[in-house]
């Protein structure tokens, strides 16, 4: 049983994340989307909102589960008996952070492999930050996130501005 974790903040989930989830789910028996509950950050969406959004958007993928985690990724991987971490690479600028994270995780837990997947070219520019930036200025985010997520983002941004 090959169990992989695709970890991230997913604040919010984008087409780029969904592309990686779909492709990664074909490479393992079970894929856990691990949503980080990072208490130091001030996310737009609560952990429950992020988890429930991703669950809804991945319900067509039978071997994908969505779970939140706190603390270290290596501890979450041990707890879930996962052997693989999946991370998406968009550009060389991602590489520096990602290789550091992968090495640090590997030093801590050598049995855990990190596999980098290149994002699809059409999402190579896309990040949750880009989505929030466009949304905050009333921009069109329909090319960035699924249609059902758009009103949720707009509601959050409008609420924040009040
Ligand atoms: O989507 P993101 O914010 O780029 O995801 C980053 C994430 C969640 C993969 C990373 O911050 C992480 O694994 N955090 C958990 C804490 C941890 O294990 N840190 C290791 C630091 S070297």
Hey, roughly how much beta strand do the residues contain?
15-25%
Number of strands: 5
Discrete helix count: 6
Percent of residues in helical segments? Answer: 40-55%
- The separation of the N and C termini measures 49 Å
What structural class results from the helix and strand content? alpha/beta
Q: Are there runs of 5+ residues with pLDDT below 50, and where?
A: none
State the major sheet.
Answer: 5 strands, parallel
Radius of gyration: 16 Å
Strand order of the largest sheet: 3-2-1-4-5
Report the average pLDDT across residues: 96
Bound molecules: 4'-phosphopantetheine
Outline type: globular
Element-by-element helix/strand order:
EHEHEHEHEHH
Q: What report would you give on this structure?
A:
This protein is α/β, with parallel strands linked by helices and 162 residues long. The protein is 42% helix and 19% strand. A five-stranded parallel beta sheet has the order 3-2-1-4-5, sandwiched between helices. It is globular, with a radius of gyration of 16 Å. The model has no long low-confidence stretch (mean pLDDT 96). The protein binds 4'-phosphopantetheine (PNS).
Task: Jot down its keywords.
five-stranded parallel sheet; 42% helix; 162 residues; 5 strands; binds 4'-phosphopantetheine
